[in-house]
Each structure stands twice: as structure tokens, then as C-alpha cells.
Design brief:
seven-stranded parallel beta sheet, globular, lipid biosynthesis
Amino acid sequence: MKKKIALVTGANKGIGKKISIELMNSGIYVIGTATTEVGINNIKKKLKNQGTSILINFIDISITKKTIKKLINKYKTIDIFVHNAGIINDNLLITMPDIKWNHVIDVNLSSIFYITKIIIPAMIKQKYGRIIVISSIISCIGQKGQTNYAASKSGLIGFSKSLALEVASRGITVNLVSPGYILTDMTRKILSSKKKEILNKIPMERFGTPQDVANVVSFLSSKQSSYITGQNIHVNGGMYVDLAT
Ligand code: NAD
């Protein structure tokens, strides 16, 4: 049987790296993206012959589109798309420069629109697809200094729920995973300087690991999750509990 192919954005480190390894261990061929040569070489080393990597920076929309089109021409279809890449660029709104707003919205949110438009026709044709989007707890609770980040991550929720409805009858599921505080380069500084204060907010009394997130992504990528779509799964040690997610 042909191996399933996954595209994982931001696969060189942190959560995306663990997701890539988890999918590879499930027998999936993984195409991971990174923004630097060092990053793409790291991915290749990890995946060995079970996958490959491509250089892509979402700041450049036109190159992003060209690269994804090339990918589809080469592989014909992407079975699983994990939109994981994301950045923070914090500032209180009152002094936030336009560039910080645009940068975060472009990388975290607009990129998924351009990529999905290119890869979804082949998923529709084969009547199978799994789209998993990494949002954030911040999309639901907000955070001072993160109007740009929170808007981008909430935007992903609206995007994914709407897309889930559009493609539900075509064998394609679209779900989100919203991590709480996970130990990666993105959070290392804040988690060490405000360790106690943040741990006090987490009922399980520990930070999450990239593996905690990868486990859920792996399930949502599998056949076992075929009747779940349009859902946002929180992975936060109980830090945010809500009836309507
Ligand atoms: P990280 O900083 O370790 O990794 C970020 C990834 O995004 C990298 O692989 C990088 O190559 C990629 N990336 C950065 N700028 C890019 C650009 N311009 N174009 C394309 N790719 C780009 O962070 P992480 O903690 O692993 O975060 C992964 C995802 O999880 C992000 O979407 C983040 O918002 C989300 N998240 C993380 C946490 C956490 O606590 N770490 C919490 C909630 C949500």
C-alpha cells in the first residue's frame, strides 16, 4: 500500500519536530518545512529516508505558493497537512508597529489560506485528507501584549471550523490542537523567568512537552479519528476548561 504523505510546517524544532517524528514512526512519509538551510538539513537528518524537507518562509507569499505548487506537482497529493509554524512578536497594542501586526498575521494565519487552496483539490479528488492546525490557548483566553498573536490564532479557529464544514462530505477532516504552555524555544524565556507564577495556573502542575501535542496530532492524522471534524482539542494540563471550544 502507498505510504501516506504529510506536510508539516515548521518541522525543524519544538512542537513541529516532535510531530514529524511521531508521524514518521507511524509509517507516514513526512515533508517538513524550515526557514533556513540549517533547519532543512536538521529535518533531513531526523527523517532519514522516511521523509524530506523544503525551505519555505511565509513572509514571501509568492515563493510560498510556488514551492507548494511544485510539491503538489511532484507528489500529486498531500494526505495530511499539519499547519504548525508560528511566531510571536509581542507589544502592547498602543505602541505596536504595523510591521509586528502584519508579520504575525502573515506567518501564523494568512499562510494557511494560500497553502490549503493549493493542496485541497487533490484531497477532494481522492476523497481523503487530514488537516490539523496548531492554534493556542491564547486564542481563547487572550494575553496582554499579544493582540497580534491572539488574533492570528483565533483566526485559525474560524478558518478551520468553516473549512471543516466545506469539505466534510469529501472525506476530509479539519481539526485544531490548542497547546497551553509547552517547553520550546518560543516559551523557554518566559517559562524560566515566571515559572512559579505560570505553574500556579496549571492544575497538573507541569508545563507541557512537544510530545504531549504530537500525540494528539498523531491521533487526528489517523484513520481512528475519521468521525471527528471541526474540533479544537486543548492540550494544557487543565489550565483552560470550557464547555464550548
Ligand atoms: P518554535 O519557535 O520552536 O518553532 C516555530 C516554528 O515555526 C519553527 O520550526 C520555524 O521554522 C517556523 N517558522 C518561524 N517563522 C516562520 C516563517 N516566517 N515562515 C515559515 N515558518 C516559520 O515554536 P513552538 O513552540 O514549537 O511552536 C509551534 C507552534 O505551536 C506555533 O504555531 C505556536 O504558536 C504554537 N504554540 C506553542 C506554544 C508553546 O507553549 N510553545 C503554545 C501554544 C501554541
